[in-house]
Design goal:
The chain is of the alpha/beta class. Helix content is about 40%, strand content about 10%. The longest helix is centred in the N-terminal third of the chain and has 21 residues. It binds zinc ion. Zinc ion (ZN) binds next to loops. This is Polysaccharide deacetylase family protein.
């Protein structure tokens, strides 16, 4: 019985972890073009009624288009913020309906109760169906790795902000971002602090650090873009409601980096 349990954990959790997070198979971690000074900011766990509007103001001020991986339950609660992201040209991706780890879910639950449900909510608000997905904590189960990536681009990150814990000031986060952002980077930050393990005030410091980072990188000639642009695939403009075609399905499955 114990052997069977260990085998299940290895096959369902550990192998997908090693393949996706260590080897980068089946997921996107960074853009292919490492020559150009292009990279993407991504923001997880929102929308948040307090921090997301401030973040959107900041991004607008610096002309930044970013990608938001949102929770379906919060999108339902704050549709006006989802609409604003869409209207201001940001990409909206899926981060499950609630912040639940995929290792605790069956592939069917991930696909229908979290990803499909959240895609429906976003599509109802914006008229455009999301094409990319980031699992909470970046953890996929074997079913996700085998099947979900055929319908959605699974985007993880190359630069982790470690921004969910409040520190004495924003300086460590600022320096971490400035030292780690390289051409092609996908940067992970959070615009909400109510996820288990996070500090509620942490996004305040993220906003402060981000402002400094944007000021510095602007002078260095960096360009910020959505992950779909960075990864050179195009989101479907004006995607009509009730359409069942998933753009990602038309792109051949391959090993991504
Ligand atoms: Zn998250």
């Amino acid at each position: 019985m114990l052997v069977l349990l260990i085998l299940c954990v290895v096959v369902y959790m550990l192998i997908p972890y090693v393949l996706s997070r260590v080897c980068g198979l089946g997921v996107y971690r960074r853009g292919k073009n490492r020559q150009e000074k292009e990279f993407a900011f991504t923001f997880d766990d929102g929308p948040d009624p307090c921090y997301t509007p401030e973040l959107l103001d900041l991004l607008k001020q610096y002309g930044v288009k970013a990608t938001f991986f949102v929770l379906g339950s919060k999108a339902e609660r704050y549709p006006e913020l989802i609409w604003r992201m869409h209207e201001e040209g940001h990409q909206i991706g899926i981060h499950n309906y609630t912040h639940t780890c995929n290792w605790m879910l069956t592939p069917w639950e991930v696909k229908h109760q979290h990803v499909g449900r959240t895609a429906d909510i976003i599509e109802r608000i914006t008229g455009e169906r999301p094409t990319c997905y980031r699992p909470p904590w970046g953890l996929l189960n074997m079913g996700d790795l085998l099947f979900l990536r055929k319908s959605y681009r699974i985007v993880v990150w190359s630069v982790m902000g470690w921004d969910w814990k409040r520190q004495d000031d924003a300086e460590p986060l600022t320096q971490r971002l400035l030292s780690k952002i390289k051409p092609g980077a996908i940067v992970l930050l959070h615009d909400s602090g109510d996820t288990p393990g996070a500090d509620e005030e942490a996004p305040r410091q993220m906003l402060k650090a981000l402002q400094t980072v944007l000021q510095v990188l602007q002078h260095k000639g960096y360009q910020y873009m959505r992950t779909d642009k960075l990864l050179e695939y195009k989101a479907v403009e004006g995607y009509a409601m009730n359409q069942t075609i998933h753009p990602a399905k038309h792109i051949k499955s391959r090993v991504y980096e």
